[in-house]
Specification:
226 residues; mainly beta; Porin; 2 helices
Length: 226
């Protein structure tokens, strides 16, 4: 698995993160991870906004039905339509142990344009039929550590037997001793029909210690694959 990530790092540097080649390599990585964790479906979201687009993939699975150990994977790729220097990605691979009900201790690696970092943190997860809630504070283990807090709230109530309302908010606050590095609030509102979610999307991003809000509005499509 780590050799594949290293190959991906070299590939991105050589090809300057060209969208389609990068996405293809990352999805292959997701497929390999998915086959190791009981080959369970992986939700993949594509958002196309007026300024940039995103691909968002997440996976959280226990190694078995009775195990308190599990694997958490999240990857976000952001691609600008005009300036590839604005492209970015963040990949997390964590192993966790559930200490109390819904509370996990997690550790692993984070990979981004800045390279690799070892990381550790907590995860509080509630996953019900209609409601998903995740709160995950995390610290990168390095001489000048950075910290982040990720929160996901997803709610899918039934409209009728075939259709569900789909709402999701994903928020990130990444900071270090100098202040804010990056924060975002990504909001989705739509429908779910036959396991496919789609609708309108709004992304709000803040960069740097004295940020101004950058936004991208568009449509999203979300589906479980593999």
């Amino acid at each position: 698995m780590f050799s594949l990530i290293i190959d991906l790092q070299k590939y991105l540097k050589i090809n300057k993160m060209k969208l389609f080649k990068t996405t293809g390599s990352i999805i292959l990585f997701f497929h390999l991870i998915g086959t190791q964790v009981k080959a369970q479906p992986i939700p993949v979201e594509l958002m196309m906004g007026n300024k940039y687009g995103t691909v968002n993939v997440s996976l959280s699975r226990n190694f078995s039905q009775t195990s308190k150990l599990g694997f958490f994977h999240m990857n976000t790729v952001q691609f600008d339509y005009k300036d590839e220097q604005k492209n970015s990605f963040l990949l997390q691979d964590l192993v966790y142990v559930e200490t109390f009900k819904n509370l996990r201790v997690a550790a692993g690696v984070v990979y981004s344009k800045g390279g690799f970092n070892t990381t550790a943190g907590l995860q509080y997860v509630y996953s019900g039929k209609k409601l998903l809630f995740l709160c995950a504070p995390r610290v990168n283990i390095e001489s000048d550590p950075s910290y982040d807090l990720m929160t996901i709230i997803q709610y899918k109530p039934d409209i009728n037997e075939r259709v569900k309302l789909f709402t999701r908010t994903q928020m990130l606050n990444l900071f270090d001793s100098s202040g804010n590095i990056k924060s975002y609030q990504w909001i989705r509102l739509g429908l779910e029909i036959n396991g496919i979610q789609f609708g309108v999307a709004a992304n709000f991003d803040e960069y740097g210690p004295s940020p101004s809000v950058e936004s991208s509005f568009g449509l999203f499509l979300r589906k479980e694959i593999f």
